[in-house]
Amino acid sequence: MINYTERLSALMRDVVSRVPTLQFIDMSAVLVFARAGRSDADGPFATCHCLTLPQSEEGYYFWRDRTSGRITRRSEWFVTKSPTVVIGGRPMKYMISFSLPRFCDQSLDRTRKEKYYPGADPWLAKLDTVIHELYHIDPEHRGIRRIEREDGTYSANCHGHQFFEQVADMVTAYLGTRPDPAVYDFLRSDFDTLDRRYGGVAATTFRTFPSFPQRYIERAPTQRPCEADAEGVVIEPLRLTTQPSHYTEADLQTRRFFKKSSARVVVGRRARAA
Ligand SMILES: [Zn+2]
Q1: How far is the CA of 73 from the centre of ligand 1 (A)?
Q2: Ligand 1 centroid to 220 CA: how many Å?
Q3: Is 251 in a helix, a strand, or coil?
Q4: Residue 98 to residue 49: CA distance in whole angstroms
Q5: What is the distance between the alpha carbons of residues 202 and 263, in angstroms, rounded to a whole number?
Q6: Helix, strand, or coil here: 95?
Q7: What is the pTM of this model?
Q8: What does the alpha-carbon distance between residue 127 and residue 12 come to, in Å, rounded to a whole number?
Q9: Minimal CA–CA distance to 148: which of 269, 139, 176?
Q10: Could you tell me which of 124, 270, 109, 262 has the C-alpha nearest to residue 195?
């Protein structure tokens, strides 16, 4: 079977070694994993997840009565935290997830990207996504790269109007360095072709699949009154997730992906007669 996320990691290592804008990225602190995403359903092809955001300030949720507009309930105080993901003793700073098989079946045809690649091969859409996600990594590791506007302030949108053009320039720059085609050739094939050729498409996932490490909330150590408090306002206990907050390589698992499902790959286990 082809391990798709391993191929993507190797490609990303090659890209960051050849594209000056991305050279600051240390791929040994970036974990690449797969999520489920059908080719015939809408959704992202890939996502960049930051693990270095600091703990949030304390906050609470509140609910208003629809007619009177008065606050009727609020949650306990909480903070939001990033999970830790430590692979081989190394804390990961970012994760990049790819939706399979959707990503494998991506094409340039009739997409927003097409105008940046006139007459190009359809598989370039996939290389564009790979570089797009790498470009979201912030050089100062303060979350997702902020886009500076012409007036020097930062845009609230992480895709400024030049973002897509800059990504396309990096795709061209990368291919212009004449990388070994063996590094990116797997992008040329769609999911069915890879599945036939390699006898399966596998990828790294989390044991908690389809869930994966995400920001989570934790009850604040001290609970104090707040502005929302008034006569009759009920303070509700937080509903906390049961997801782990710390992950290691023991939480990773290889899964084989199919058109509409996936299954865990059990390696090296043999049936044994008693
Ligand atoms: Zn993006």
Answers
A1: 36
A2: 32
A3: helix
A4: 11
A5: 9
A6: strand
A7: 0.89
A8: 10
A9: 139
A10: 262
pLDDT band with cut points at 50, 70 and 90 for residue 29: very high
CB 1, CB 204: distance < 8 Å: no
State the distance from the centre of ligand 1 to the C-alpha of 157, rounded, in angstroms. Answer: 10
Dist. CA 9 → ligand 1 center (Å): 18
Per-residue pLDDT of 41-82, as tens digits, reads 999 999 999 999 889 999 999 999 999 999 999 999 999 999
**β partners of residue 154:** 148
In the three-class reduction of DSSP (H, G, I as helix; E, B as strand; rest coil), residue 249 is classed as helix
- Residues β-bridged to residue 2: 201
The amino acid sitting at 106 is: Q
Say how many C-beta atoms besides its own lie within 10 A of residue 193's C-beta. Answer: 11
Between the CA of 224 and the centroid of ligand 1 the distance, in Å, is 38
* Closest by Cα among 220, 235, 241 to 58: 220
Please report the DSSP string for 163-224 in residue order: HHHHHHHHHHHHHHT---HHHHGGGGS-HHHHHHHHT-EEEEEETTTT-----EEEE-SS--
Q: Which residues are within 8 A (CB) of 104 and not within 5 positions of it... i.e. 6 or more apart?
A: 4, 39, 126, 189, 190, 191, 194, 201
Contact 16, 22 (CB under 8 A): yes
